[in-house]
Amino acid sequence: MSKTKIFFDTEFTGLHQGTTLISLGAISECGKTFYAEFTDYAITQVDDWLKENVIAKLNHPKGDVSDCIVTEDRPNDMLVYGTTKEIKIYLEKWLSQFEEVEMWSDCLSYDWVLFSQIWGHAFNIPKNVYYIPFDICTVFKMKAIDPDVSREKFGCGEVYHEMPKHNALWDARVIKMCYEKLNDVRP
Asked: Model confidence over 68-89: pLDDT tens digits?
């Protein structure tokens, strides 16, 4: 049996060892989505660029939410606003709908470490999640496409227009579109 591919992305407080999650977006290959905004990120690590490009695009910027909020408007889609501990519960619930999961991201070094850190350690991630993540950058390189190509233009093609870049769920959708298009590319 093949694993369900989950395409995911994170937004976080900087490219450094002590970074913290701001948001996480995921979409399954069949289109089920999960989006979380963390209320316990290190606000002291937020610079002007993050304020303008990430925080301003959140549904609930830090301070707007005092309790965990969960919405499940569409079956199998979930929006969560809360602490890492709260989000972990709902992310586990969302992931549990899939028998086996394979995680895909873009430039996934930080994404995978931060995803694993939700459970405190990579050995604690849910058992249905395969422990080896996959990186779309490597697929671009193997297909002889510049790994620095605009993901939006590549994935969306001619219908591309300026989208909400630096929104973790949108970025996860773009990763999925790129993966699907890359499957048709012969090097």
From this structure: 677 766 767 899 999 999 999 9
Q: Report how many domains make up the chain.
A: 1
Contact (Cβ atoms closer than 8 angstroms) between residue 102 and residue 3? yes
CATH code (residue 59): 3.30.420.10
Q: Give domain status of residue 103, yes or no.
A: yes
156 belongs to a structural domain: no
Residues 6 or more apart in contact with residue 60 via CB below 8 angstroms: 37, 39, 69, 81
Q: Nearest-5° angle of CA 169, CA 171, CA 176?
A: 95
Query: Rounded to two decimals, what is the model's pTM?
Result: 0.91
* Exposed/middle/buried for residue 34 (C-beta within 10 Å: 0-12, 13-18, 19+): buried
User: Quick one: tokens of 184?
Assistant: 């048709």
Residue 43's domain comprises 4-134
Distance between CA 83 and CA 74 in Å, rounded? 23
Residue 81's CB is within 10 A of a number of other CB atoms, namely 22
- Residue 116 domain-assigned (yes or no): yes
Q: Is residue 20 part of a domain?
A: yes
